[in-house]
Amino acid sequence: MKTIIFLCLVLLSQGLLAQPKPLNSFDKIAQALGLKKITEAEAHGLKVLAFMDIVHLPSEYQPDPGAPAISGDLQLRAAIKFLPQMSGTLASYVYQLLIPEPFRPSAVGLTNSIQGDFPDPRFYPSTQWKFVDHTIANIRVWYETDDPTKEALAIKIKDILGDKVIEPTRRLMGRTHPADDDINRTLKVRLGLEKTMPNGGDGKLDVYLGVISKAANARAAVFPYALKSSDSLGCLATASYMTVDLGFARSAPESHLMTTLAHEYFHTIQNSYNRKSECHTYDNSDEGTATYIKHHFFPSLNHEHEWFEYFEDGPEPFANADYGTWVFYLYLVQSQGERTIRDLYEKEELYSDLDAINAVLKGGWKEGWPEFALYNWNQDPLQDNFVRWDKFPFLPGRGALDAKGHKPPIKIEEVSLDLNGTFRSPFRLQLKPLTRDFYAFDFSGQDIRSVSIDNPILFAAKKARAKVMIVKSNGQSVEEFVWEDSKRHVYQYCLDNPSERIEKIVIAVTNYNHKVTGPVYNFEGAVKATNIGCYKYQGRARAQLYASSPKSTVYLDVQASDVVMKAKGRNDEGFFGGHFNLEKGVITYNYRGQSDGCVGNASGNLLIDTGPSVIALNVYPYNVPPDASGTYAFILQTKERTISVKYTCPAPLPSYEVSVPVDIQSLGEISHNGFDHFSGKASKLGWTVEWDFAPVKE
Question: At what angle do helices 339-347 and 353-360 cross, to 10 degrees?
């Protein structure tokens, strides 16, 4: 037994036995719903208890020690629709938690009866509550009279909202909060039974300084009045009220109070719009835009930087994220102007949340999502990024979280060739709808001549794109473009070619399908590089023929100098075939021979055969590390494939001419192993060939 315990301790210390992740109340409620232990209505009701009244939450849904705090007060508005389907006790609890605190029965004895002990919403709160008004901004802040410091806090909240938040909101959105005295605020809490949500006695926006919940990570919360739907709309506009947590208001610096109030007040604006789909389906985008508002109204405070996880986690679907998506809305405003936020909420009367963004985003998700992903890189070679916009320093990451919750940043990988002159870096992509991932490489190292990148969107239909940044060799020119040909297997670059010379490349690969049920895109590929020449080879070659018999000898010396062979190019799929055309060269020859007393001599120059149809060098294979070894072969042809040699014979024998081939070739395929030049010597059938060709980098 001791041995087993010791082994488990060792495995735990090495991280080989995974420890269960502590679950919060929302996690446990979601699990129970997935197992069909509770209904959807019960799940929504239990979430309200978890957020607002953990004392009455059943023990099986209490959070584990060390579990992350729950957040997201907008999830509570979904409970309104499900009240009639809850049990009487649960509906009673939920209703009383959804009405303003001063109107609730004593927190010690929440009634279990759906029929009794509900406050009359026409009455003012008890004399234990008072208020301060901001008449211009049309708001009323409520506080309890048991502590004189609460009045000072109420005044501070009133002044921040009235003087620093509401008017900027009107300029941005063209509206402020709606009055709450001309809207039907009745809730169906049971079939045949409706209750009214108290409105504070007038049409002002009511803000209550109270207690939200010790279990919730909530500084403040906004509660809509009765949410209705129609045949054409899933969510009708409604007024709201706000609660500010007393403990937070007392302890927070004024700057944090300001940004929190701006965030929560924007929720009242969101609730004032009619929407095509059910209200809760907009929760995530509402949290993202409301968090962006922190930046919009108070750009120097940077409290929105608290939500960095989504920015660092490219494979996290946009549809699953909430607060952290504020970076996308900052990008939206930077690229299209602040009017886009207002346009977005006006479009939501016609569309669901993701479809509404598709409608306002220039080029829709197809164009806008890859562009956002590129800005998400947030470092060189980007000239414009989130650092410049908001001093937001975080980077996309990959791997396990550190102690502060950050992923290790994805860095530009420096490409270094191995002893065989090759490099290979594999990558694997798994992209769900509206996700992104990044790969970046530095090719400025010595001797890198050719680069090959497997197309990361290969056969990805029409829902994937790769937005690319390329830094040219001068270090100043940056090109941006889109890889969108899903049938092209590779993208290749020849660093010897001035037009293709790159130093760095950053690839933002995206799945821009905004349908949540869309397919997951998987791909495995690699980035490869070699020192194999890819643009031109320059050098020399010499072929010598010596043949001897008792009656004759032949010696031919053919030399090619200043030979230049240029790459033929790539096929339609982007592959370089390893074919080089003969561009120029000088060929000389010298012939000596004797046969039966006849003597032949010849020397001179020959015109080399050039042009796109003349293949002078074949390299197989081209740029396929880590197995970059292969073969090559060359042939240097002349326009006259042979020379004519006149033999002079002693009388009475007549003179005669012979035709002698003069091409220089490798006499077969020669092995190579990724070396940076081709040189060698071969012999066959009396021929001896020597050559030395080195790549040219212009």
Answer: 130
DSSP-derived 3-state class of residue 556: strand
Helix (H) or strand (E) holding 285: helix 283-297
Distance CA 408, CA 401 (A): 7
pLDDT exceeds 70 at position 118: no
The pLDDT value given to residue 214: 65
> What is the pLDDT at residue 1?
47
**What pLDDT, on a 0 to 100 scale, did the predictor assign at position 562?**
96
Q: What is the C-alpha separation between 366 and 363, in angstroms, rounded?
A: 6
> How far from 286 is each of 75, 324, 345, 490, CA to CA, in Å?
11, 11, 10, 41
Which pairs with CB-CB distance under 8 Å and at least 24 residues apart come from 410-416? 410/438, 410/439, 410/440, 411/440, 412/440, 412/441, 412/442, 412/504, 412/506, 413/440, 413/441, 413/442, 414/441, 414/442, 414/445, 415/441, 415/442, 415/443, 415/445, 415/448, 415/451, 415/527, 415/529, 416/445
Angle at 79 between CA 74 and CA 84, to 5 degrees: 160
Buried b (16+ CB within 10 A) or exposed e, 378-407: bbebbeebbeebbebebbbbbeeeeeeeeb
Enter the tokens of residue 309: 């996880």
Residues with Cβ within 8 Å of residue 76, at least 6 apart in sequence: 47, 48, 51, 52, 98, 221, 223
pLDDT in tens, 537-553: 999 999 999 999 999 99
Question: ∠ CA(437), CA(514), CA(481), 5° rounding?
Answer: 50
pLDDT at res. 197: 80
State the chain's maximal CA–CA distance in angstroms: 144
User: pLDDT tens digit string along 45-87?
Assistant: 999 888 887 788 899 999 998 888 887 677 777 888 888 898 8
Other beta carbons within 10 angstroms of residue 85's beta carbon come to 17
Sole residue written with tokens 């939501």? 348
The whole-angstrom distance between residue 677's C-alpha and the CA centroid of its chain comes to: 40
Where are the chain's structural domains? 413-530, 536-696
Both tokens of 430, joined, read 């798994």
Neighbour-count burial for 485-509, b at 16+ CB within 10 Å, e otherwise: ebebbbbbbbbbbeebbbbbbbbbb
From the candidate CATH numbers 3.90.320, 3.40.50, 2.60.120, 1.20.1440, the one assigned to the domain spanning 413-530: 2.60.120
Query: Is residue 192 over pLDDT 70?
Result: yes
The C-alpha angle 316, 319, 324, rounded to 5 degrees, equals 65
- To the nearest 10°, report the CA torsion of 98, 99, 101, 102: -170
User: What DSSP character marks residue 128?
Assistant: T
Are 503 and 443 in contact by the 8 Å Cβ rule? The answer is yes
CA atoms of 642 and 170, how far apart (whole Å)? 89
Task: In whole angstroms, give the CA distance from residue 321 to residue 76.
Answer: 17
What is the average per-residue pLDDT within 640-653?
93
